Amino acid sequence: MNTTTKYAATALAAALGVTVLAGCGDDGSGGSGESEGPGSKTVTLVSHDSFNVSDKVLKAFTKETGYKVEILKSGDAGAALNQEILTKGSPRGDVFFGVDNTLLSRALDNGLFTAYEAKGLDTVAADTQTDEKRRVTPVDTGDICVNYDKEYFADKKLAPPKTFDDLLKPAYKNLLVTENAAGSSPGLGFLLGTIAAQGEDGYEAYWKKLKANGVKVVDGWEQAYNEEFSGSAGGKKANADRPLVVSYASSPPVEVLYADPQPKEAPTGVATGTCFRQTEYAGLLTGAKNEAGGKALLDFMISKTFQEDMPLNMFVNPVVKDATLPELFTKFGEKIDTPPTVAPEKITANREQWIQSWQSLVLK
Length: 364
Hints:
The chain has 364 residues and is an alpha/beta fold. The chain contains 15 helices and ten strands.
Protein backbone atom coordinates (compact mmCIF):
# COMPACT_ATOMS: atom_id res chain seq x y z
CA MET A 1 0.00 0.00 0.00
CA ASN A 2 2.84 2.32 0.66
CA THR A 3 3.73 2.55 -3.02
CA THR A 4 0.46 4.38 -3.62
CA THR A 5 1.66 6.97 -1.13
CA LYS A 6 4.90 7.32 -3.07
CA TYR A 7 2.90 7.93 -6.23
CA ALA A 8 0.82 10.57 -4.46
CA ALA A 9 3.89 12.31 -3.09
CA THR A 10 5.58 12.27 -6.49
CA ALA A 11 2.47 13.54 -8.22
CA LEU A 12 1.96 16.40 -5.81
CA ALA A 13 5.61 17.36 -5.85
CA ALA A 14 5.56 17.44 -9.62
CA ALA A 15 2.40 19.53 -9.65
CA LEU A 16 3.36 22.03 -6.98
CA GLY A 17 7.14 21.89 -6.93
CA VAL A 18 7.15 21.17 -3.19
CA THR A 19 7.88 18.37 -0.77
CA VAL A 20 4.73 16.91 0.75
CA LEU A 21 6.01 14.97 3.73
CA ALA A 22 5.77 16.89 6.98
CA GLY A 23 6.74 16.20 10.54
CA CYS A 24 6.31 18.30 13.65
CA GLY A 25 7.73 21.47 12.17
CA ASP A 26 9.91 19.51 9.69
CA ASP A 27 9.93 16.05 8.14
CA GLY A 28 11.51 14.51 11.19
CA SER A 29 13.67 12.22 9.11
CA GLY A 30 17.02 13.86 9.47
CA GLY A 31 17.78 13.12 13.10
CA SER A 32 19.69 10.33 14.76
CA GLY A 33 16.61 8.22 15.45
CA GLU A 34 17.63 7.73 19.07
CA SER A 35 15.45 8.84 21.96
CA GLU A 36 17.32 10.33 24.87
CA GLY A 37 15.92 8.01 27.51
CA PRO A 38 12.91 7.32 29.75
CA GLY A 39 12.47 10.99 30.66
CA SER A 40 12.84 12.26 27.11
CA LYS A 41 10.02 14.25 25.56
CA THR A 42 10.97 12.93 22.12
CA VAL A 43 9.55 9.65 20.84
CA THR A 44 11.09 8.15 17.71
CA LEU A 45 8.97 6.41 15.10
CA VAL A 46 10.87 4.16 12.68
CA SER A 47 9.01 3.57 9.43
CA HIS A 48 9.18 2.99 5.70
CA ASP A 49 9.68 5.97 3.41
CA SER A 50 5.99 6.31 2.62
CA PHE A 51 4.83 7.19 6.12
CA ASN A 52 3.06 10.53 6.05
CA VAL A 53 0.99 12.45 8.59
CA SER A 54 -0.34 15.99 8.73
CA ASP A 55 1.68 18.51 10.67
CA LYS A 56 -1.43 19.55 12.60
CA VAL A 57 -1.99 15.95 13.73
CA LEU A 58 1.55 15.61 15.07
CA LYS A 59 1.10 18.92 16.86
CA ALA A 60 -2.14 17.60 18.37
CA PHE A 61 -0.23 14.59 19.70
CA THR A 62 2.41 16.87 21.23
CA LYS A 63 -0.25 19.07 22.81
CA GLU A 64 -2.08 16.04 24.21
CA THR A 65 0.92 14.12 25.56
CA GLY A 66 3.88 16.49 25.73
CA TYR A 67 5.90 14.25 23.40
CA LYS A 68 7.36 15.41 20.10
CA VAL A 69 7.60 12.80 17.35
CA GLU A 70 10.81 12.23 15.43
CA ILE A 71 10.30 10.18 12.26
CA LEU A 72 13.13 7.98 11.04
CA LYS A 73 12.44 6.76 7.51
CA SER A 74 14.32 3.66 6.42
CA GLY A 75 13.56 2.70 2.84
CA ASP A 76 10.71 0.46 1.77
CA ALA A 77 8.86 -1.74 4.24
CA GLY A 78 11.11 -4.77 3.75
CA ALA A 79 14.32 -2.77 4.05
CA ALA A 80 13.09 -0.98 7.16
CA LEU A 81 12.18 -4.28 8.79
CA ASN A 82 15.56 -5.80 7.91
CA GLN A 83 17.35 -2.90 9.59
CA GLU A 84 15.35 -3.39 12.78
CA ILE A 85 16.13 -7.12 12.80
CA LEU A 86 19.84 -6.28 12.50
CA THR A 87 19.62 -3.90 15.47
CA LYS A 88 17.11 -5.86 17.58
CA GLY A 89 17.53 -5.37 21.31
CA SER A 90 19.19 -2.02 20.66
CA PRO A 91 16.64 -0.37 18.38
CA ARG A 92 17.03 2.90 16.55
CA GLY A 93 13.71 4.16 17.87
CA ASP A 94 10.77 3.47 20.15
CA VAL A 95 7.98 2.44 17.78
CA PHE A 96 8.14 0.70 14.40
CA PHE A 97 5.36 1.25 11.87
CA GLY A 98 4.88 -0.44 8.52
CA VAL A 99 5.27 -4.19 8.94
CA ASP A 100 2.33 -5.82 7.15
CA ASN A 101 0.71 -9.23 7.26
CA THR A 102 3.02 -10.59 4.54
CA LEU A 103 6.07 -10.08 6.79
CA LEU A 104 4.54 -9.89 10.28
CA SER A 105 5.55 -13.32 11.51
CA ARG A 106 9.17 -12.62 10.56
CA ALA A 107 9.16 -9.60 12.86
CA LEU A 108 7.47 -11.52 15.67
CA ASP A 109 9.77 -14.53 15.35
CA ASN A 110 12.74 -12.19 15.76
CA GLY A 111 11.32 -10.73 18.98
CA LEU A 112 11.26 -7.15 17.70
CA PHE A 113 8.29 -6.02 19.77
CA THR A 114 7.31 -5.77 23.42
CA ALA A 115 3.68 -6.63 24.15
CA TYR A 116 1.43 -3.66 24.80
CA GLU A 117 -2.36 -3.39 24.54
CA ALA A 118 -3.00 0.07 23.14
CA LYS A 119 -5.78 2.15 24.66
CA GLY A 120 -8.76 2.10 22.34
CA LEU A 121 -8.01 -1.32 20.87
CA ASP A 122 -11.64 -2.26 21.47
CA THR A 123 -12.62 0.20 18.72
CA VAL A 124 -10.37 -1.52 16.16
CA ALA A 125 -11.86 -4.02 13.71
CA ALA A 126 -11.50 -7.50 15.20
CA ASP A 127 -10.39 -9.13 11.93
CA THR A 128 -7.22 -6.99 11.90
CA GLN A 129 -6.15 -8.09 15.39
CA THR A 130 -4.19 -11.18 14.41
CA ASP A 131 -1.64 -11.22 17.26
CA GLU A 132 -3.29 -12.41 20.47
CA LYS A 133 -0.18 -11.46 22.48
CA ARG A 134 -0.65 -7.78 21.53
CA ARG A 135 2.91 -7.36 20.30
CA VAL A 136 1.62 -5.25 17.43
CA THR A 137 -1.28 -2.83 16.99
CA PRO A 138 -3.21 -2.74 13.68
CA VAL A 139 -3.09 0.74 12.14
CA ASP A 140 -4.45 0.55 8.58
CA THR A 141 -5.59 -1.71 5.80
CA GLY A 142 -5.24 -1.51 2.03
CA ASP A 143 -6.33 -3.71 -0.84
CA ILE A 144 -3.99 -4.76 -3.65
CA CYS A 145 -6.13 -5.10 -6.78
CA VAL A 146 -5.92 -4.99 -10.55
CA ASN A 147 -6.70 -1.47 -11.84
CA TYR A 148 -7.97 -0.81 -15.35
CA ASP A 149 -7.87 2.07 -17.81
CA LYS A 150 -11.52 3.07 -18.35
CA GLU A 151 -10.85 4.89 -21.61
CA TYR A 152 -9.14 1.88 -23.19
CA PHE A 153 -12.01 -0.50 -22.43
CA ALA A 154 -14.64 2.03 -23.50
CA ASP A 155 -12.86 2.60 -26.82
CA LYS A 156 -12.57 -1.15 -27.41
CA LYS A 157 -16.19 -1.72 -26.31
CA LEU A 158 -14.78 -4.40 -24.03
CA ALA A 159 -15.94 -5.00 -20.46
CA PRO A 160 -13.03 -4.79 -17.99
CA PRO A 161 -12.15 -7.93 -16.03
CA LYS A 162 -13.73 -8.45 -12.62
CA THR A 163 -12.06 -11.58 -11.21
CA PHE A 164 -8.80 -13.51 -11.20
CA ASP A 165 -10.35 -16.02 -13.63
CA ASP A 166 -11.32 -13.24 -16.02
CA LEU A 167 -7.64 -12.34 -16.43
CA LEU A 168 -7.11 -15.69 -18.17
CA LYS A 169 -9.60 -14.94 -20.96
CA PRO A 170 -8.25 -14.39 -24.51
CA ALA A 171 -9.88 -10.93 -24.58
CA TYR A 172 -7.30 -9.73 -22.02
CA LYS A 173 -4.22 -11.27 -23.63
CA ASN A 174 -1.11 -9.05 -23.34
CA LEU A 175 -2.98 -6.40 -21.32
CA LEU A 176 -1.80 -7.01 -17.72
CA VAL A 177 1.39 -5.79 -16.06
CA THR A 178 2.33 -6.87 -12.54
CA GLU A 179 5.31 -6.52 -10.23
CA ASN A 180 7.97 -9.07 -9.30
CA ALA A 181 6.65 -11.02 -6.32
CA ALA A 182 10.19 -11.60 -5.07
CA GLY A 183 10.92 -7.93 -4.49
CA SER A 184 7.70 -5.94 -4.63
CA SER A 185 5.02 -5.61 -1.95
CA PRO A 186 2.09 -5.35 -4.40
CA GLY A 187 3.63 -8.10 -6.53
CA LEU A 188 3.78 -10.42 -3.52
CA GLY A 189 0.28 -9.38 -2.48
CA PHE A 190 -1.07 -10.23 -5.92
CA LEU A 191 0.62 -13.64 -5.80
CA LEU A 192 -0.89 -14.26 -2.36
CA GLY A 193 -4.27 -13.16 -3.69
CA THR A 194 -4.09 -15.80 -6.40
CA ILE A 195 -3.13 -18.40 -3.79
CA ALA A 196 -6.07 -17.38 -1.60
CA ALA A 197 -8.43 -17.52 -4.57
CA GLN A 198 -7.08 -20.58 -6.41
CA GLY A 199 -5.80 -22.57 -3.45
CA GLU A 200 -2.33 -23.91 -2.74
CA ASP A 201 -2.99 -26.73 -5.19
CA GLY A 202 -4.25 -24.47 -7.95
CA TYR A 203 -2.15 -21.31 -8.03
CA GLU A 204 0.71 -22.81 -10.08
CA ALA A 205 -1.64 -23.90 -12.84
CA TYR A 206 -3.26 -20.46 -12.69
CA TRP A 207 0.08 -18.68 -13.20
CA LYS A 208 1.02 -20.95 -16.09
CA LYS A 209 -2.18 -19.86 -17.81
CA LEU A 210 -1.64 -16.21 -16.89
CA LYS A 211 1.86 -16.33 -18.37
CA ALA A 212 0.48 -17.91 -21.52
CA ASN A 213 -2.02 -15.04 -21.67
CA GLY A 214 0.80 -12.52 -21.86
CA VAL A 215 1.21 -11.12 -18.34
CA LYS A 216 4.20 -8.75 -18.18
CA VAL A 217 6.38 -8.66 -15.05
CA VAL A 218 8.46 -5.62 -14.09
CA ASP A 219 10.59 -4.92 -11.04
CA GLY A 220 8.29 -2.71 -8.98
CA TRP A 221 5.13 -0.66 -8.64
CA GLU A 222 6.67 2.61 -9.82
CA GLN A 223 7.60 1.09 -13.19
CA ALA A 224 4.37 -0.88 -13.53
CA TYR A 225 2.02 1.96 -12.69
CA ASN A 226 3.79 5.07 -13.96
CA GLU A 227 5.56 3.64 -17.02
CA GLU A 228 3.57 0.62 -18.23
CA PHE A 229 -0.06 1.35 -17.26
CA SER A 230 -1.94 3.40 -19.84
CA GLY A 231 -4.51 4.67 -17.35
CA SER A 232 -2.20 6.60 -15.02
CA ALA A 233 -1.05 10.18 -15.52
CA GLY A 234 2.55 8.96 -15.73
CA GLY A 235 1.65 6.15 -18.09
CA LYS A 236 -0.10 8.50 -20.50
CA LYS A 237 3.05 10.64 -20.67
CA ALA A 238 5.13 7.50 -21.29
CA ASN A 239 2.74 6.24 -24.03
CA ALA A 240 2.18 3.09 -21.98
CA ASP A 241 0.27 0.27 -23.64
CA ARG A 242 -0.91 -1.96 -20.78
CA PRO A 243 -4.47 -1.09 -19.64
CA LEU A 244 -4.38 -3.47 -16.66
CA VAL A 245 -2.00 -3.12 -13.71
CA VAL A 246 -1.60 -4.52 -10.21
CA SER A 247 -2.00 -1.55 -7.88
CA TYR A 248 -4.40 -0.60 -5.07
CA ALA A 249 -8.12 -0.01 -4.58
CA SER A 250 -7.16 3.50 -3.44
CA SER A 251 -5.36 4.38 -6.69
CA PRO A 252 -8.41 5.91 -8.46
CA PRO A 253 -8.86 8.60 -5.76
CA VAL A 254 -5.16 9.46 -6.14
CA GLU A 255 -5.63 9.99 -9.88
CA VAL A 256 -8.52 12.36 -9.15
CA LEU A 257 -6.86 14.28 -6.32
CA TYR A 258 -3.74 15.20 -8.25
CA ALA A 259 -5.34 15.86 -11.63
CA ASP A 260 -5.61 19.47 -12.78
CA PRO A 261 -8.42 20.09 -13.33
CA GLN A 262 -9.98 17.36 -11.24
CA PRO A 263 -12.24 15.10 -13.32
CA LYS A 264 -15.82 14.29 -12.36
CA GLU A 265 -15.03 10.59 -12.70
CA ALA A 266 -11.86 8.66 -11.91
CA PRO A 267 -10.03 7.67 -15.11
CA THR A 268 -9.21 4.27 -13.65
CA GLY A 269 -11.29 1.52 -12.11
CA VAL A 270 -10.76 -1.49 -9.86
CA ALA A 271 -11.39 -5.14 -10.66
CA THR A 272 -12.89 -5.88 -7.27
CA GLY A 273 -12.59 -9.65 -7.58
CA THR A 274 -8.79 -9.52 -7.85
CA CYS A 275 -7.93 -8.07 -4.44
CA PHE A 276 -5.74 -9.09 -1.51
CA ARG A 277 -6.08 -7.38 1.86
CA GLN A 278 -2.95 -5.97 3.50
CA THR A 279 -2.90 -4.84 7.12
CA GLU A 280 -0.10 -2.64 8.47
CA TYR A 281 0.92 -2.73 12.12
CA ALA A 282 2.92 -0.70 14.61
CA GLY A 283 4.69 -2.04 17.68
CA LEU A 284 6.73 -0.95 20.68
CA LEU A 285 10.31 -1.93 19.91
CA THR A 286 12.01 -4.22 22.39
CA GLY A 287 14.67 -2.18 24.19
CA ALA A 288 13.03 1.15 23.39
CA LYS A 289 14.59 3.99 25.37
CA ASN A 290 11.31 5.83 25.72
CA GLU A 291 8.69 3.15 26.41
CA ALA A 292 6.21 5.60 27.90
CA GLY A 293 6.40 7.82 24.83
CA GLY A 294 6.16 4.80 22.54
CA LYS A 295 3.02 3.56 24.29
CA ALA A 296 1.47 7.03 24.06
CA LEU A 297 2.20 7.10 20.33
CA LEU A 298 0.61 3.68 19.78
CA ASP A 299 -2.49 4.87 21.64
CA PHE A 300 -2.61 7.94 19.42
CA MET A 301 -2.21 5.97 16.17
CA ILE A 302 -5.58 4.30 16.77
CA SER A 303 -7.29 7.50 17.82
CA LYS A 304 -9.87 9.01 15.46
CA THR A 305 -7.62 12.05 15.03
CA PHE A 306 -4.81 9.98 13.51
CA GLN A 307 -7.05 7.44 11.77
CA GLU A 308 -9.08 10.05 9.92
CA ASP A 309 -5.90 11.82 8.82
CA MET A 310 -4.43 8.71 7.12
CA PRO A 311 -6.59 8.27 4.01
CA LEU A 312 -5.47 11.43 2.21
CA ASN A 313 -1.88 11.17 3.46
CA MET A 314 -1.11 7.49 2.99
CA PHE A 315 -4.11 6.41 0.88
CA VAL A 316 -5.02 3.59 3.23
CA ASN A 317 -8.15 2.69 5.18
CA PRO A 318 -8.56 3.24 8.92
CA VAL A 319 -9.00 0.25 11.21
CA VAL A 320 -11.03 2.11 13.83
CA LYS A 321 -14.64 1.18 13.19
CA ASP A 322 -16.20 4.63 13.57
CA ALA A 323 -13.52 6.60 11.70
CA THR A 324 -14.96 8.61 8.82
CA LEU A 325 -13.53 8.33 5.31
CA PRO A 326 -13.09 11.52 3.27
CA GLU A 327 -15.52 12.12 0.39
CA LEU A 328 -12.72 11.53 -2.13
CA PHE A 329 -12.51 7.92 -0.95
CA THR A 330 -16.24 7.28 -0.74
CA LYS A 331 -16.93 8.90 -4.13
CA PHE A 332 -14.02 7.59 -6.21
CA GLY A 333 -12.62 4.63 -4.28
CA GLU A 334 -13.79 1.04 -4.12
CA LYS A 335 -14.91 -0.57 -0.89
CA ILE A 336 -13.75 -4.19 -0.89
CA ASP A 337 -15.95 -5.97 1.63
CA THR A 338 -14.49 -9.48 1.77
CA PRO A 339 -11.17 -9.65 -0.10
CA PRO A 340 -9.23 -12.91 0.12
CA THR A 341 -6.25 -13.00 2.44
CA VAL A 342 -3.82 -15.55 3.84
CA ALA A 343 -3.10 -16.12 7.52
CA PRO A 344 0.29 -14.69 8.63
CA GLU A 345 1.46 -18.05 9.97
CA LYS A 346 0.70 -19.72 6.64
CA ILE A 347 2.60 -16.99 4.82
CA THR A 348 5.57 -17.58 7.12
CA ALA A 349 5.59 -21.30 6.53
CA ASN A 350 5.28 -21.06 2.75
CA ARG A 351 6.38 -17.60 1.56
CA GLU A 352 9.83 -18.51 0.26
CA GLN A 353 8.63 -21.70 -1.40
CA TRP A 354 5.72 -19.87 -3.05
CA ILE A 355 8.03 -17.13 -4.34
CA GLN A 356 10.56 -19.64 -5.67
CA SER A 357 7.80 -21.58 -7.40
CA TRP A 358 6.42 -18.36 -8.89
CA GLN A 359 9.87 -17.35 -10.17
CA SER A 360 10.34 -20.75 -11.83
CA LEU A 361 6.94 -20.59 -13.48
CA VAL A 362 6.84 -16.96 -14.58
CA LEU A 363 10.37 -15.62 -14.97
CA LYS A 364 12.04 -18.55 -16.70
